[in-house]
Amino acid sequence: xxxxxxxxxxxxxxxxxxxxxxxxxxxxxxxxxxxxxxxxxxxxxxxxxxxxxxxxxxxxxxxxxxxxxxxxxxxxxxxxxxxxxxxxxxxxxxxxxxxxxxxxxxxxxxxxxxxxxxxxxxxxxxxxxxxxxxxxxxxxxxxxxxxxxxxxxxxxxxxxxxxxxxxxxxxxxxxxxxxxxxxxxxxxxxxxxxxxxxxxxxxxxxxxxxxxxxxxxxxxxxxxxxxxxxxxxxxxxxxxxxxxxxxxxxxxxxxxxxxxxxxxxxxxxxxxxxxxxxxxxxxxxxxxxxxxxxxxxxxxxxxxxxxxxxxxxxxxxxxxxxxxxxxxxxxxxxxxxxxxxxxxxxxxxxxxxxxxxxxxxxxxxxxxxxxxxxxxxxxxxxxxxxxxxxxxxxxxxxxxxxxxxxxxxxxxxxxxxxxxxxxxxxxxxxxxxxxxxxxxxxxxxxxxxxxxxxxxxxxxxxxxxxxxxxxxxxxxxxxxxxxxxxxxxxxxxxxxxxxxxxxxxxxxxxxxxxxxxxxxxxxxxxxxxxxxxxxxxxxxxxxxxxxxxxxxxxxxxxxxxxxxxxxxxxxxxxxxxxxxxxxxxxxxxxxxxxxxxxxxxxxxxxxxxxxxxxxxxxxxxxxxxxxxxxxxxxxxxxxxxxxxxxxxxxxxxxxxxxxxxxxxxxxxxxxxxxxxxxxxxxxxxxxxxxxxxxxxxxxxxxxxxxxxxxxxxxxxxxxxxxxxxxxxxx
Length: 730
Prior knowledge:
This protein is α+β, with helices and mostly antiparallel strands. The protein has 15 helices and 29 strands.
């Protein structure tokens, strides 16, 4: 632009001088015939006149061509200049009036080359001498008019075209030898919008006061420049501003700026044809810009009805990353000293669409009615920001953040989420747990405080009417948790689940993950609930995950055992969708030894009491009371056991204990009785649960697991283990 002005001034000066000192017809012919010698370009004009007595000159239909002598570079319909000739006698050059009408200027750039470079080169000088001598001439230019003019700029390399039409400029006066100048500029852009400027300049103090007003400028022409760095298809919007800029030409970086900037009806379309960003209006009110110290103060920044989307692709890239061209994506690891303060920050009625294509089924979620408010917002300082939003037309989110964007080691974040519909989150439920969500609403109160990188968080979670579908066995979920069973057990009679999930840890730790901590805490809870649902419902009750079998060498069940199974029966009545799997686990080695010792004692007692009545011999309980007191370690017992071993030709030695002798004598016989007693005990338990506790036979299974040392399993004592599952689960 500066070069263009120089060219125009040179040409205008040449024409003015010619009209004064050469007879107009001769001057017109001379200019046209020798224009290339004079300005290195072809020139034509239709009319030229002057009045040496009044100091006026007029040029009509002027054209300066490009180097090809065919394309117009600069043209104008009319130029009128009026000089004060008498002032020349007193070393005063005064232009009383300049009127330029219907001017058209075409500036073309291709890389670092312009279509007027040849003219600049023509007038350039190889001399390096500098003339520092002050001039005693006074130079004044008054009453400058530029009417109905047109300017076009083309950047061939970028493919951009800018056009300013109906340019109107009025400058009351410029005194280049005095101290003050006052000028204005007004024109319209070809694609829409106007620019109005006014500048007051004090040449003595070198101070300027510039007022710039842009009204309804359409942003379409900036697309080629955006496409140099971004993969965008189109851009639209209307820009307006009213700025006041005051400063000194001696200190170009020191100036004061204030005013308003507004963009409305904005839309940016990415290379996939999607609107990556739209908004009705963003308005910024500038209070101060300090480029030297890189500080910016905005009175306000208000965005209305902003809409955007964020999409993650299967290759884990996303639409924001792909918006940038590869050669423009740089990682800046240097710290910036820029400071920005926004005294009033407001985002009103924003909407964000979140799309995740990395899941088994795509996740598409709408976050609407986003409103953000902050006063005196500064990323460097502690801020107090509040936000609220609507999630998928159901849940209500409220957020309060106190902290600095550049100091994550100290933060305070409070989140309240109410009535969030869970079914839309099925893609994540399938990914993490393998279950689709069929119903349920979620509310969360989350408080998270970070002090010196140490997080202390509390999450109170309330779920109403949670329901899951059947597990999808085709999906390998990240977490194998009894989610369906756990939620069913935790759901109270009113259909609610209340959970407390604390989160603690050092956020700087490479192993720290908020999500993983939540899932680990939730997983531990669900496993505990699934293994012992009674304890989850009756927090003050005893542990009923296992029930001991105090007398494994009989088929009887004690009152204590029946009482505990009665409590389990009560649990089933509260949760009728549960299925009860009971396993009688028996330690074979310990149990068979007890059976064999009792058999040895019984035979020893009977052999020593031949006068026992038939009634006693047939009464196992009475007989057991008598032989249980027999001393297994007595010499008589040892002699009796040895005699039995000799009679059956079973090998033993002096180190063989009486316990081992009992096993050698009775193991095969007692193993059959052990299995018989275990089966009988299971039958009695099944009858109790089915007939007395009203548990349907389809909802309870009982089996026996006799664990031998060779099985590799460990069991310290005989017991019933209780396993719960939903009837719909396998």
